[in-house]
Amino acid sequence: MAPIRRQPVQLTKVTLTKASPTVSLAKSGQTGTMRVNLNWTQGRRGLFGGGAIDLDLACLYQLKNGSKGVVQALGRSFGNLHRPPYIRLDGDDRSGRTAGGENLHINLDHLAEFKRILIFAYIYDGAPNWSAADGVVTLYPPTGPEVEVRLDSPDNRARSCAIALLKNENNELTVTREVRYINGTQSEVSKAYRWGLKWAAGRK
Q1: How far is residue 204's CA from residue 109's CA, in Å, rounded to a whole number?
Q2: Is the peptide bond before 85 cis (omega within 30 degrees of 0)?
Q3: 58-114 residue pLDDT tens
């Protein structure tokens, strides 16, 4: 009898959990664009007196040269993929009906220029109801398995959720699961992570 040859397991997805919250995404020399996708379930009409949930994907960024800011639909701060901050938001899904959800694109050709990026989401319109939204964020690096962060343990009093913190340490990009619900909007997220930004009212 011939020995059974087992095929190596090809890891296609890593799910970050409280028990295993951090993974390395990219090391020096990796190039290309990483997509960060937010998808969620459309809210039901009449739920807590509101309509569909308008959940927005956004990020705070800080570059090695000290510049920092936010990429988001609010204020039409969609960013730029080829100039600082090398991050671009592709659009605004108002209801969760779009199959592709919302996507941030991060240009890893400029990995050395990043210091940290905080991926977060906030409920722009509709009653805070993370349970109904059932959101999930998935990161798609140019190579290697996709990385999933589920917005579990929901706090329906909060309007924002810090989802994942990306850090460049010695030209190695790591992602750490946060899933930290925050009572307040972007300014409170910024304050919680000591980003030091000043905020003004904005609109889509």
Answers
A1: 30
A2: yes
A3: 999 999 999 999 999 888 899 999 999 999 998 655 444 555 789 999 999 999 999
DSSP secondary structure string, 157-198? T-SEEEEEEEEEETTEEEEEEEEEEESSSHHHHHHHTT----
CA distance linking residue 49 with residue 46, whole number of Å? 5
Residue the block writes with tokens 């308008």: 54
> Is the Cβ–Cβ distance between 132 and 43 less than 8 Å?
yes
What distance in Å separates the CA atoms of residue 17 and residue 48, rounded to the nearest whole number?
A: 30
Nearest Cα to 143, choosing from 2, 24, 6? 24
Contacts of 149 (CB under 8 A, 6+ apart): 15, 16, 136, 137, 138, 139, 163, 164, 177, 179
Rounded-to-integer distance, Cα 91 and Cα 50, Å: 23
Q: Position of tokens 């990219």?
A: 26
Tokens, residue 157: 């009093």
pTM of the model: 0.86
To which residue do tokens 């969760």 refer? 96
Q: What contacts 165, CB < 8 A, 6 or more positions away? A: 116, 117, 118, 119, 175, 176, 178, 193
